[in-house]
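Is it possible to get an amino acid sequence alongside its tokenized fold?
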Amino acid sequence: MKTKQEREIAKKYLGTRGVIFVGVFTALWIVLQLTLGPLGFTLFRLPIFCDMAAYFTLLLVVWILGKFGGASLVGIIGSVAILFLRPGAFNILGFAASAVLFDVLCLTIRHKASTRLVNIVILTVVTVVSAYFAGAIIGSLFMTQLPYWSLNWALTYWAGLHAAGGLLSVLITLPVIAALERAHVRGLIPRG
């Protein structure tokens, strides 16, 4: 039987199951970033699929864990792994930074992602702001070699495209979360 102090610690920090979920969602982050991101650039020359891959994963990890740190770990570990697999793909560091911002901003809902209207609005704002932040970092630090680059371009056009990708990821992920809630998936996962 756990003491009251042990239960309080378990509520705040990632336990063994939390670390396992971080590993699973990190693998999902890596696979989606290595497949969807390049696909979007190949087909449309747009970064929108990169954002879909990132925030689909981050929204799910916040929903399943409900604790601070999970999304940050997924973004940072996944981005480092991508750098090992694709040396020179430093733009992924913008997504690592935005994953930390996303995690911090999710404190506004105490990491309790749900399909309630208030949560949907807040998650949408958090995701779009985080995606914009990723686009601003990527556009202003890693896209400077483009002939039409300017800081104005990076902060409006490029970051705006990322924000649109973040919004699209919310539109894709929230129905998935709703379906998982209707199936009571979270109740099937043992806590601890």
Notes: The chain has one domain: 15-188. The domain at 15-188 is CATH 1.10.1760 (Arp2/3 complex 21 kDa subunit ARPC3).
